[in-house]
TrEMBL record:
Family annotation (SUPFAM superfamilies): TPR-like
Residues given in the record as Zn(2+) binding sites: H136, H140, E201
Descriptive protein name: Putative beta-barrel assembly-enhancing protease
UniProt-annotated catalytic positions: E137, D205 (proton donor)
Signal sequence, renumbered to the chain: 1-28
Amino acid sequence: MFVKRTRSLLCVCIAASLSFTAPQMSLAQGNDLPDIGTVAGATLSIDQELLYGDAYMRMIRANQPVINDPVLSEYVDTLGHRLVAHADNVKTPFHFFLINDHAINAFAFFGGYVALHSGLFLDTQSESELASVMAHEISHVTQRHLARSMEAQAQRSPATLAALAGALLLAIAAPEAGIAAITATTAGSIQGQINYTRSNEREADRFGMQTLAKSGFDVMAMPRFFSRLAAEYRYSSKPPQMLLTHPLPEARITDTRERAQQYPQEHPTSSLHFFLARSRVIARYSGLDEKDALDWFTRTAKKSSAAMAPAFEYGKALVYLDNEKLTQAEEILTKLVKNDPNNNFYLDTMSDLYLAKNQAHDAELMLQQALKENPNNAVLEINYGNVLLKEDKFKDAIRVLQRYTHDNPNDPNGWSLLAEANSRAGNSEEDLAARAEILALKAQWNKAIQYYTQASQLTKLGSLEQARYDARIDQLILQRERFMALQNK
């Protein structure tokens, strides 16, 4: 399922708190680091970090072009949690998401949130390289670097840790006010801040590489990607955002290369799913027109192994489909599905093709069979709900989408489809409730409460539905108060 999203202004400054500099260390120190990831616990608890993380994420949804693509979301989430399963000192759940931005960058913040710019797929050349970036950001979270950095700033200034965290939240909601607040509350020396962030990066490198190795990836991918990135932009007047927030001095690259050589060298087979995800980003999020995108897939396929050929064919099929050249798209997709019938990249796009050809029933049958093989899969379920909606099977669509939104409450796509299904079925109050949930995901509390209030007024007095709406209103009011309290500390 493909839902186009409008690009909005980038305004987050969190990544700057996790800059990527580190002096060279003696290898004699090895990988035995003390458990220093809980130093910030004296002033900022894990529960508080979760509150701030949730608040930041809502503001990011409102202010950044988050990619709500079911297939890409499944890929980065699967890859991220493979790494988390082998990370040390994990104290929070993790959430991985993509931002539609060509700049090469990634950042992490409170509550286990890790953001990847789509530009990373344009520059990483293997799954191990992408995983190396993710492992580094995961380590920032497990070692609680943002909390510890803010604690250090609070010790150098009159500001409380809560004031600094609230200033970051303000910076997302109102960039000028937030940056001014951070400036006003931070009195420490510039050198002190640089030294502290270098310490953070050293830890994130070492723990990240350890996680990468334990997860079965090629540890040499980290220095390889960093070296190529640094060389490519060495003389650039405008380096990518990642080199601004994550500088790569030669000593830093040398250290990671020497450290990687201490690990057993793994050479995992190339990941088709990585190249499928990369092709999807190129086709739908790179901004290339039809001719340039097709040319990119043709040129890149010639330089790649034959085993990855399906990924480049898949990219071409997406370009054809998005440009309404359905015959060409169908010819490619039919072969891909035949050879790999349970691949969600192919099934998602084949579903879109069937809908474009007004063959929704064929899509329904295909997805029903796929769900028998892979029950409750999020990609298949949201596509199934979408197909039922297109067939005007509103009751069935609502049933599927209610289950989907229950299991995936933070995906605005599910709420959007549920709102449409209820609207077309004449369920005005449920339409309002679903739209309220989309607003709440973006911290637009007042409007969300207004929609639920309207839904409550439309339903029968004293009914279970009205009680449910009123209970949700109470929850949203409490969430709004907590959110405002975070900003005002």
